[in-house]
Amino acid sequence: MPLSTSTETGVPIQGPTATLLYDDWYPALRADTLRKGKLATAMLLDLPLALGRREDGRVFAMRDSCPHRGIPLSYGWFDGQRVTCRYHGWEFEPCSGQCALIPSLTGHDRIDATRIYATAFPCEERDGYAWVYIPSPGSGRKDGSAERRRPVPELARFGPRYHTAHLAAGLPCNVDHGIIGLMDPAHGPFVHQAWWWRSRASIREKTKRFEPISEGFRMSSHAPSANSAPYKLLGVYGQPVETTIDFVLPNRRTEIIRCGDKWFSSLTTVTPVTGSTCRIDVVAAWNVFYHVPLVTPIAKFFGAKFVRQDQVTMIQQAEGLRHNPSLMLIDDADKPAKWYFALKQARLEAAATGAQPKHPMDGPVELHWRS
Ligand code: FES
Ligand SMILES: [Fe+2]
User: Fold this and answer.
1) How far apart are CA 18 and CA 150, in angstroms?
2) Can you tell me which atom of ligand 1 is nearest the CA of 66?
3) Ligand 2 midpoint to CA 191 (Å)
4) What gap in Å lies between CA 271 and CA 70, rounded to an integer?
5) 3-state DSSP call for residue 115?
6) pLDDT tens sequence across 195-247
7) For ligand 1, is residue 21 a contact (CB within 6 Å)?
8) pLDDT-above-90 percentage for the chain
9) Are 309 and 316 contacting, i.e. CB atoms less than 8 angstroms apart?
10) DSSP helix/strand/coil, 68
11) Among candidates 219, 171, 177, which has minimal Cα distance to 16?
């Protein structure tokens, strides 16, 4: 799916920027694009990255900038062990960023190359993504702080046998709009109209219970909406269907559907590429309809259609946002969006003061809307 960040006339769409949350993990790219001996590039939180896979299989992410004169390291060479800058040939160990060689040095020089570091970020492979930990600007090298890092996000699985799929879509709006679009319950009947999902006419009043969880909130376990077709399919198992949806900072929505020993699990993230653009990634695993042929291509087809509907809407929204309109959040349908902004604010304040972040919810809440 192409990332559309310009209108048909080629005018770049660029709306307002969002404040970014650092000190957390973000998916940079699919790890299978990292081949031994090759460098790939990605942009995360306005940071250009050079990523690769060492000969021993370990993935790495460096700032795509040589500490000597700033040329992107991705223009250089990578032999599976060291990244070599194409300008003066400095060599770096890519996981630590440590400089291993400065070819121009002679016996007359006193400089110790190994005391020089290119910026390398913690990088871990999970669920097929290379996740990169982006510390706050100016917080120094990664060493020594591994215990203080939040854990690498991971898709929940409930058994050893499952199908899996993933998809991605670029959004030309900032991460806040991407996230509140993701948690917005009221757009469903309008944006996701389809015979196989739901129609505008199927709109009905819903009551959902939410509870606070650490740095997020949970739509408490409930029987899914009677007006969505995929859930109806689960009726074939003749077991009660329960679904739980969590949102957790900085950008994660997890949805778990369980029906006896059958399950579906997804992790959706909205990652800031720059201050004003983002990308949505969805990875899912399931054992429902495990033996039905073609279930993975069918799920991918419908999943991609669904995300494409959101993407098209946000491309249109970005056109409007370019002109900095004033916006509204209304009760109750926009309450999750309000919680998101409050949680984010609380994290930013806590990062500045060192205090515990204050949760915007006092306890469980019931929200009502029509969708
Ligand atoms: S700019 Fe990279 S070695 Fe000089
Ligand atoms: Fe949507």
Assistant:
1) 22
2) 2
3) 7
4) 25
5) helix
6) 655 666 778 899 999 999 999 999 987 766 655 656 666 777 777 888 899 99
7) no
8) 67
9) no
10) coil
11) 177
